[in-house]
Amino acid sequence: MVEGVARVVAADGSVAWLEPEPGSSCGGCMSAALCGTKAGGSRQAAKRFPLANDADLHVGERVVVGIEESSLLRASMVAYGLPLAAMLTAAVVASKIFMAGDGAAGLAGLAGLLLGLAAARLCADRLSIRGELTPHFLRRALAGEDCHPHKG
Amino acid sequence: MHDLVLLIVAAALVNNVILARFLGLCSFMGVTTKLDTAVGMGMACTFVITVSAVGDWALQRYLLEPYHLDYLRTVTFILVIAAAVQFTEMVIRKVSPALFQTLGIYLPLITTNCAVLGVCLLLVEGKMGLVDSTIFAFASSIGYSLVMCLFAGLRERIALADVPRLFAGPPIGFITASLLALAFMGFSGMGAN
Questions:
Q1: DSSP category for residue B62
Q2: Domain-located, residue A77
Q3: Do A63 and A79 lie in a common domain?
Q4: How confident is the model at residue A151 (pLDDT cuts 50, 70, 90)?
């Protein structure tokens, strides 16, 4: 189980909205200002996700949420692997089998990338319906707890 | 096809981005404490390196070379990489918000990964066609991901081992990395004939 710490930013009856806390290494990263993963950043706000509020969570509470390793791997394969495989296959087939020039191979690669993205969307919807992309509530975070329990 | 296989083996193993060319060392040490984060970073990097390599190749061939603007290469490539990262983030957010919430954390970090720029600059030296350049970039990034995953697996095991206090943490990480680099030296010369 991949664990992460999130903060409750809104609680509306049976649904709580959580915002993931940035990793502990973000504070020391030279590109922290660029990437916007620091707390309160617009990118963090975009990553807010709903969670069933069975544990009676309140705004400001920190909780530990988790997602299966296999789900993370599957999500990576769908988001990156599928479009990339389609793009490479289309470009290589156009170039090596149909002996197309660079321009035609590039267009074939672009078409493959778009097809791959469409396929990724279908697969992601299927994963989402099965609930594989939704983090699960594990426990309330202890004071000072972060997502790197083995560090130090 | 034989040439393609040789190109893939050379880019992924013989001239590995991390252990032979020493690029992307910041993420190599920083994101490999856990296997799952290494896999996520590796996959994201693979996608961005390959996509930005296509864009960089096109700009180099149709803009920088014909107009003798080679001195703008580094700046142009950095712009393409940043655009590719933004494009990827936007597309993933559009394609599936749930996927974006799960994977989005790694994307902005790739902009500052020197392995991406390094691979794109190596493409220029290679003077290859579009497909060969794309395959080279893809294979290089697969080599990058492979080493990230191997090293993360080793570090997870080391975290459970009884390491002397003096060597605990980064020192034992660097020693492990050097042993891994020695192991990859075994690939040097492969396919030279």
A1: I
A2: yes
A3: no
A4: very low
Residue numbers of the domain that contains A27: 2-67+135-140
| Tens digit of each residue's pLDDT (9 = 90 or more) over B131-165 | 899 999 999 999 999 999 999 999 999 989 898 98
Question: In angstroms, what separates the C-alpha of A13 from chain B's closest C-alpha?
Answer: 22
Q: In this complex, which of A36, A76, A109 lies closest to B108 when CB atoms are compared?
A: A36
B86 has a chain A CB within 8 A of its CB:
no
Closest CA to B104 of A2, A40, A47: A47
Which residue is closest to B27 within chain A, CA to CA?
A29
Q: Are residues A45 and A57 in the same domain?
A: yes
Cα B72 from Cα B124, distance rounded (Å)? 13
pLDDT band, very low/low/confident/very high, at B25 (cuts 50, 70, 90): confident
pTM of the predicted model as reported, rounded to 2 decimal places: 0.81
* CA-based nearest residue in chain B for residue A122: B95
Same domain, residue pair A74 and A47: no
Amino acid at A82: L
Q: What are phi and psi of A25, to 5 degrees?
A: -80, -15
- Contact call for residues B138 and B46 (beta carbons, < 8 A): yes
Phi, psi of B75 (to 5 degrees): -65, -45
Q: What pLDDT digit, counting tens, does each position of A35-61 carry?
A: 555 555 556 666 677 788 787 888 888
pLDDT exceeds cutoff 80 at B172:
yes
CATH number, residue A49:
2.40.50
The helix-helix angle for B114-126 and B35-59 (nearest 10°) equals 40
CB pairs under 8 A between A and B: 132
Number of domains in chain A: 2
Answer yes or no: do A73 and B39 touch at CB < 8 A: yes
